[in-house]
Amino acid sequence: MVLRAVCGLALLGPALAAPAGAAVTPAATTAAAAGTTVAGNVRYELIGRWDVAKLNQILTSDSPKFFGVSVAYTPARNAVKLYRVTYASVIPEQGNRPITATGLLAVPETGATAFPLLSYQHGTVYGKQQVPSFPDQSPETALAIAQFAGQGYLLIGADYFGMGVSSEPEGYMVKASHQQATYDMLMASRAVLAHMKLTAPKLFIGGWSQGGFVTMAFLEKLESAGVPVTAAATASAPVDVMATLSGFLDFPRKNDADWISTLFILSSFSFENYYRVPGLARALLTPEYYDVARKAYERQPFNPADVPTDLHKLLRPEYFDAQFFAGSAYGRLLADTQAYRWVIKSPVRNYFGETDEAITPGIGQLAMTYQRAMGSGNMAVEAVSTGNTSHRGTYATAVPQWKRWFDSK
C-alpha cells in the first residue's frame, strides 16, 4: 500500500505498478538484452517497445487518473523503442570518484534519422526503480514519453546517482552530482544515437519538482560548457532549496504536503554522504526518529507509519530558529543548493501552480524575478502559472504547454 507521495510518486511503500496499458514489452532476444557497447564505456540495451495504443492510453486514461487532472494532450502518432543506457560518470564532490550510472533513451519509430531531443529530469521518488530507465514504474516518465517521444521527439532521462541500478547511496539534491549525471547521460546518449546513425540538431530540457531543480542546474552546466540549448522548461521547480525548506519551518501553510518531512530526510543523509560531513543527519534529526529516517534513506525495511509528518517531531527544535538554521552545517550546504543565480542565456519557462502543496508561487517565480532584477533585466526566463493546480496537477498541466512551446522553436 502506498502511504504517502513525493512529487506525486511512491514515497513509503512498494514500487508503483505499471500504468494500465503502459507495460514494457520485454526485449525480444537474448542479444538485445545483453546490450551493445559503444564509445568504450557506454552500453545500451533494448528494454521494451510501447505502441501507439499504449501511448494514447497513458495520455487519455492513466495520466488523468494518476495526476488528478484532465488535460488535453496531443495524441501519439508513432510507437517508441525504449533503451536503458549505462555509462561512466564521476562524483564531483568526492574528487571525481568514478562510478557507473544509468538512464533511459526513447527512440520514435518513424523512419526519420533526425529528431528534436528532450532531456527529461525526474522528480523525487522513494523506490530506486521509479526512475526513467524503469519507465513502467514511473508515471511521470511515461507521460513524457507518450507526449514527446510519441510525437517524434527523442527522449532521454538520467536516473541520478544512487537510483536505477546504481549501487551508490542516493545523491538527493546534491547539485554538482546532478549536473554530472545529466551531462554525462547526454554525452552517452549522443554516442548511442551516433551508433544508431541518428542525429538530434535541437536540444530541449525539462523537469518536474526535484527534476525542475536538476533541469536548471543542468542548464547552468550546459551553458558553461557552451552546449546550445534550444529551450528549457520546468514545473514546480525548487530553484532555491534553502528558501524552499526554510519556508516549511518558518512560514508553514495550511496546504503544505504531509510528505515534506521526507525532503529533510533525503537531503540530510545525501549531503552527509556526498559532501562527507559525518553526523550531519544526526545533528538535524531528533534521536527518536533518526534510526527510522536512516532506514528510509537506505531503503532498509521499516514501518512507514513510524516516519512523522510533523516536522516538530522529526527535526531538532533549534532548527526552527531561522538564524540557527542558516548558520548550521546543513543550512550552509542548503544555501549553496540553488539553480538560478547566473546570467541565463537560453529561453526558459518555469511553470508553477497557485495551490501547489510543495512549491509556493514565490519559489515558482524566483528565477524570473532574479534575472529581471539585474539592471534593465534579463528577459530570458518567464514564469508561467498553471492556475489552481496541485503539485501533480502542475506537471500534468504544464507538459502539453512545454510541447507547444518546444514545437514553436
Globular, elongated, flat, extended or rod-shaped: what is the shape? globular
Note the beta-strand portion.
Answer: 15-25%
- On the 0 to 100 scale, the average pLDDT is 92
Q: Using only CA atoms, what is the Rg?
A: 20 Å
Describe the largest sheet: 10 strands, mixed
Widest sheet: strand order? Answer: 3-4-5-6-8-7-9-10-11-12
The number of distinct helices, counting runs of at least 4 residues, comes to: 15
Give, in order, the helices and strands. EEHEEHEEEHEHEHEHHHHHHHEHHEH
Name the poorly predicted regions: 1-5, 8-33
Describe the structure.
This protein is of the alpha/beta class and about 400 residues long. Helices cover about 40% and strands about 15% of the residues. The protein has helices at about 30-35, 50-65, 140-145, 175-195, 210-225, 240-250, 260-275, 280-285, 285-300, 310-315, 320-325, 330-335, 360-365, 365-370, 390-405; strands at about 5, 10, 35-40, 40-50, 80-90, 95-110, 115-120, 155-160, 205-210, 230-235, 350, 380-385. The strands form 2 sheets. A 10-stranded mixed beta sheet has the order 3-4-5-6-8-7-9-10-11-12, sandwiched between helices. A two-stranded antiparallel ribbon has the order 1-2. Helix 5 (about 210-225) links the parallel strand 9 (about 205-210) and strand 10. The longest helix has 21 residues, at about 175-195. The chain is globular. The model is unreliable at about 1-5 and about 10-35 (pLDDT under 50).
